[in-house]
């Protein structure tokens, strides 16, 4: 049985599926597409010949591949107009649900950065590494996203 960072594939699926699905849903806004994307991520992992230093490295790789697969999804011909988020996202906590719809209104890059920072707990340097961006760019997009969210929450107006 193949292992990565000391974990078997079924352990990786159990450990990281919720995180990867949340990221893919956050990007695509469609649960079924998110599930397909995560399945593609795991298939990519199975074909992977590289070794991972530790679980942190593995998790960062899985998240990066998930974002790349989401970008591929938007480039593909199978993209439909996105549907509004529905009750399909019952796996998020109540406090997350209060702000999550507003996060979906952010520009894609801001949305990704805000999500990784607040929901997955990554630092700006780690996000920059995952997304292949400059740390200062990540910081400015995070600040911009925060300001938009603050305005929306205070005034109840649209984020954009």
UniProtKB/TrEMBL annotation:
Which segments constitute the RNA polymerase sigma factor 70 region 4 type domain? Answer: 105-149
In the record, the note on similarity to other proteins reads: Belongs to the sigma-70 factor family. ECF subfamily.
Write down the superkingdom of origin.
Answer: Bacteria
| Originating species | Sporosarcina thermotolerans
| MF term (GO), any | DNA binding
Q: Does the keyword Transcription regulation apply?
A: yes
Q: Which UniProt keywords apply?
A: Sigma factor, Transcription, Transcription regulation
**Pfam families in the cross-refs:** Sigma70_r2, Sigma70_r4_2
* RNA polymerase sigma-70 region domain span: 13-78
Q: Extract one GO BP annotation from the record.
A: DNA-templated transcription initiation
Q: What is this protein called?
A: RNA polymerase sigma factor
